[in-house]
Amino acid sequence: MHGSSRNRTTPTTPTTPTTPTTPAGPSRRSLLRSSAGAALGVTALAGVTGPAQSAAAAPRAITGTKIRNLTGPAETGRFAAPWTDLGIPVRCPDGTLLHVCGDTFDGDGVGGPDWRSPVGLRSSGSDLDGGLVIDGSVGGEHAVGLVPEGHEGGTTAIPSDVFTIGDTMYMHLMRGVIYQTHHSDFWRSTDNGETWEYLCQWPGDALGGQFQQKTYAVADDGWCYVLSTVFNRDTVSGLLLHRVRHEQVGDPAAYEPWGHDGDWAWGNPPTTVTGARRWGEICLRAMGGRYAFTYLHHQPDEISIRAQIFDLPTSDLFRTPEQTLILPTVPGSEDGNRVANPYGGWVYPGAAFDNFHIAVSQWYDDQNYRVMQYRIDGLEV
């Protein structure tokens, strides 16, 4: 039913989400245990589900194929980055691909020596179907941290998005002890990601914390459309929408909210554009004349990567069907689009709805922490 109709432009009137709170930050080890435990205890769901889980015609089956591991000792150990995650893919102005990764370690496993975040791993090729290969890094033989981050007191710099406008690349980072975002900051590069210049920052408590994690769709109409949430998988958060002109992305005062105040309009106080939930990583992209929104659905009974496809940035996400791209499973039982403890899910530059590729992360013990390339088939558009 949903495959034969377009999404409405005017969203449903929302309910007010719970005001997020920031709990004490867990250690990396406790995060590993809790995430892996949740992944091992879920019951996998399949296909397409609406936000209210309403009955609908049987959806087209979504399938997936792992193309390859992009990182790991064999793949990126030669860049002193055998253990890393996230791998947000961005096309550089020179046409190559850069994967911007999160917490990165050398040595024998996660938590080893030489902790850096973020780092940049390069792929000179861009053929998605042939499978990408990491063949370089920012820093040459030793991947370096892209920005200053000494990790004092356990702080880190987690990338939430990287994108290119013209000949300039932009990177958004969440700073502080993980899940205790002190502030987020914004950087730019004019040399294909080799060096980065600081632009601006936002306090971690802005908009009740719901402006910590941001993702940017660079549209052809001169605007970037920005979705944001709390960066804490254990905290219920709304999903907020802003827009900003391409030339003003580094000016916090230029971000204009979309909200409901009697009616939906730009400039209203920001209102959640879909039901509040516990969000993991988020990715919004303008592609094929439409928009793709992928995200980690992090609920007590399921950790999966989902997508919504819609016509306009202001389409009604309350009613847009959710399509499950990556399903959870247990280690040793992975096949197709079933992944043990998945997260991430950023859309690759050059992907199309009928050739949909995403970067998927995995972490369930100190020897299984990586970035992978997956192809997804069967999306309803």
UniProtKB/TrEMBL annotation:
Short name of one Pfam family: DUF4185
Record domain DUF4185: where: 75-375
Compositionally biased spans, kind Low complexity: 9-31
InterPro entries, per the entry: DUF4185, TAT_signal
Region named Disordered: 1-31
UniProt name for this protein: DUF4185 domain-containing protein
